[in-house]
C-alpha cells in the first residue's frame, strides 16, 4: 500500500524500542497518528487552518521528534520561505516525512536540510507541551494494541 507521506527506503526501518506495541515501521506509525493528530497538537500559528482533511498541517516537529523516540536516527529541517523549518526523519539511509502531505503536490528538497536539535525546539514550552500531548495520545492507542 502507498501512504501519502514522503519516504525513501522507510519500509526497512524498525522500532528501536520494544515497547512500541503495534508500531512496526513508519507506515504503521502514520496510520495511528492519522487518528490522533488534532488542532491542539498543531502549531498555534496554523491552528485556524487545521482540519481533518489536512491533519498533518502544523504537526511536523512534534511528529518528527516522536518518530525519533521510536525509530532513532536524526531529525532534519528544511528552511521554508516563511523562515520556519519543516521537520522530517532520517534513520541510516532512510528518509521519511510523515507530515509531507500538508504540502500537497509541492516537492520539498530533502537534500537541503539542516539537523535539528530537540533542545532548541523544546525551548518553546508550547511546542514541548504539544509533543507531550501527542505522545500521551499515542500511548493511549498503544495500550489497546
Order of helices and strands: EHHEEEEHH
In terms of per-residue confidence, which ranges show pLDDT below 50 for 5 or more consecutive residues?
none
> How much strand content do the residues show?
15-25%
Q: Nearest-angstrom radius of gyration?
A: 14 Å
Strands in their spatial order, largest beta sheet: 1-4-3-2-5
From the N-terminal CA to the C-terminal CA, the straight-line distance is 21 Å
What is the number of E strands?
5
Gross morphology is globular
Overall pLDDT score:
91
Largest pleated sheet: 5 strands, antiparallel
Helix content: 25-40%
- Briefly note the structural class of the backbone: alpha+beta
The total of helices stands at 4
Give a structural overview.
With 145 residues, the chain is an alpha+beta fold. Helices cover 31% and strands 16% of the residues. It has helices spanning 26-36, 60-71, 118-121, 125-142, and strands spanning 6-8, 74-79, 85-91, 94-97, 113-115. α2 (60-71) crosses α4.
Q: In a few lines, what is going on in this structure?
A:
With 145 residues, the chain is an alpha+beta fold. The chain has helices spanning 26-36, 60-71, 118-121, 125-142, and strands spanning 6-8, 74-79, 85-91, 94-97, 113-115. Strands 1-4-3-2-5 form a 5-stranded antiparallel β-sheet, covered by helices on one side.
